[in-house]
Amino acid sequence: MESATFETELSLFKYDNLEQLPERYRDLDEGERRERIEAAKAELGDDVVILGHNYQRREIVEHSDFVGDSYQLSKEAADADAKYVVFGGVTFMAESADIITDDDQSVILPSMEASCPMAGMAEALQVDAAWKEITAAAPGSEIVPITYMNSYADLKAFCAEQGGLVCTSSNAAAAFEWAFERGDKVLFLPDKHLGENTAYDLGMEDSIAEWDPWDPEGKDAAAAAEADIVLWDGYCQVHERFAAKHVADLRAERPDANVVVHPECRREVVEAADVVGSTATITETVANADPGDTWAIGTEIHLAKHLDRWHPDVEVLPLCGDACMDCNAMRQIDPNYLTWVLEELVAGRERNVVEVAPEEKELAQVALDRMLEV
Ligand code: 13P
Ligand code: SF4
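^ thats the input. predicted complex w/ 1,3-dihydroxyacetonephosphate below
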């Protein structure tokens, strides 16, 4: 199959129409903000739905109609009837919502700077070049590309074009199974840790090759041709922070504590944990804990803080203490921005609308639809 070509530039901020916050919104205090957000929501009624990812800060989560993991939020976006979907999340999530919603619905990303660095680690241009090298080295193979949801629409379109699909952390193993029913090799992008953890889940850890697009030594097409699973060398800096030592230290100090981590963590951390799963699984694990239980959380710090607030009868600890990070991209969704975009909608103006280019949208939708069906 010929690979598709895309015009996309290498750039973290793909939507240059997204605006900065006007001066008059920069110093609102929480009380005023709360009243204004609630007033704007009441005025907009069913015309607006606010989706909040589990990593959003408290003030965004409190004003969200739905809070969840990437998969749940993409389902909510697909089912939403509202004219405006305001996305408390990062650019790739808003893009996916725009692809999944109808043409007469607008998806609004309150802040322009909410771009996941991991999504920027696999640009469609780089992937296209890698694809050509790997397919040339494996002429008899049927390679199925899978991209993690944390990627831009052009890469999702590329995967659909090549017979592949999208997955999230909650359905990666099912996506791999789908791929191996149709081909004999998977190229997984951009998160090498989720890819490796999924390979272990499927008992395929002995046939992995890595592909580092930035290092000439890290691109071994012959090794990629030999392997069943080729992992793109991307990662999330928030999750790479966790190490097996954090789990070992915790277990030494608190033998009663349980550990739940996200599959974007390194293999050594996942192996040491009691439970591994998406942010929805982490949330459910703590929600289902018995009173008095202790759970250490190996993911972005805001979710650990929410769980601590939501479940006062459970002891919730951040797995690496003060070293646990917040996600710099998620943090960009400042509640002042939320106030601004909602009040602008009340005034009849749509600000910071994310609109995926039509040439990418149709194919990216195919990749997302395949995911929603696995
Ligand atoms: P979830 O799909 O588990 O919500 O994770 C999204 C994400 O960005 C993790 O870093
Ligand atoms: Fe991206 Fe990591 Fe933030 Fe998730 S936590 S949005 S993968 S940078």
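Residues 1-11 have pLDDT under 50 and may be disordered.
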